[in-house]
Amino acid sequence: MSTAAEAPSPGNGRTITTNIPARLDRLPWSRWHWTIVIGLGTVWILDGLEVTVVGNIAGRLSEPGSGLAISSGQITGMAAALYVAGACAGALFWGRLTDRFGRKNLFMITLAVYLAATALTAVSFAPWWFFVFRFLTGFGIGGEYAAINSAIDELIPAKYRGRVDLMINGSFWLGAVGGSLLSIVALNTDLLPANLGWRLTFALGAVLALVILLVRRHVPESPRWLLIHGRDREAEEIVTGIERRIESEQGEALAAPEGELEIHQRKDVKFLEIARTIFADYPKRATLGFSLFIGQAFLYNAITFGFGAILTKFFDVPADHTGYYFAVIAIGNFCGPLLLGKLFDTVGRRIMISSTYLLSGLLLFGTAWLFDRGSLSASTLTACWCAVLFFASAGASSAYLTVSEIFPMETRAMSIAFFYALGTAAGGISGPLLFADLTSTGKVGDTVLAFQIGATLMCLAGLVAAALAVRAEGRSLEDVARPLSAVANKAKTATRNARAAGSTRGGHGPTAPPAVGRP
Q: Whole-prediction pTM value?
């Protein structure tokens, strides 16, 4: 049980000693954990559904009789850019609030924003309306990344954290499979009128979001977040309830937890302190996060932005049949994190992150060589892409896992949001500008160059991971990166504040050595 010792000190609150993180990490896998996975993880399916459907129905939506006077270029250009901009802005906006007001508050609000925006997209009557609610849909989804990844990593036991995080982030591609197949139905005017099919696809997304919202009500606030923000009694009640539920399910008492943490509770962490922590205290980890997100963003854009153009221009695949090929690629993307995820917890983060990045990059180099020689058909090229993305998807999912576990808890959501926004901006801005031009020329050499650029950046990120990746497998989040509120960090914090003020302050008593565990 947690213990709290009243320790009067100026500022934010009490100093307490707690074993709640250790109690959460020693839990065996249970039905309760599956509830967390379903309640929080299924939203990525919606993201995959959204992105894929919009791209695939662009042709039908721009035709006369669709009920919306919009061009295909506006859908894949302006609307797509606004969705990306909304996702970046939402990640940063909601990420800051997630660290400040809690995981549950924000993952309920962001899903509600997504639900409302998607439903209102379905009733679009003019391009401006469509553009506004595509931005707001992205705004909600971007916030989900920060709130959900924070909550999942803080609720899932340490020995399962890697595989669960990868599986959940990889479920985006399950939505992409559904979006590809759903778009085939939506494009079929024999089944649905041209002005109705595309509306129903957005309405379906809203219905699925409502179901997830109802399930998500039962997901608790992160006890780790509650502890730091002075709500340790609530944290104790939540963890005790989870323990009783699992003991009842297992039919035996749980093992005793090992380890305690002493923290000085605080209500808020200033933005400048978050930035200083990420870039000044953990520069190598920040470099790692940058590299992983940029590498996967460019590899994916090297393939996906030219996907339809390559199949239609080089292999004469009808435009309304590209959805079948994309569904196959999406399955490969989903299988990667699903089948390789456990290895991130057993073989280890450094080996698995670097190897998935390097393997996917090398395989894409091989694909470029075969494509340049004219040795591929539409089917074999798709098979090559599937192999590349099997490893790339596991690597890309591990990028989200990495930035969510290698920075202190008080900065977790903002760290996820920052690196997510960086990768999304690189993919949504630089990607289209670079790769769409290369793959649309119809020249083999230009497409080969696109593949080679993506492969090079992915391999470079793999080399950075080999050197800098943190061995976080099986370790508690507090061990990987001690909270800023941990008493062990007070000496460094006090010294930094004193330097900023130009004076030395006392009154906090003896302090422990600086935090450990950084690369």
A: 0.82
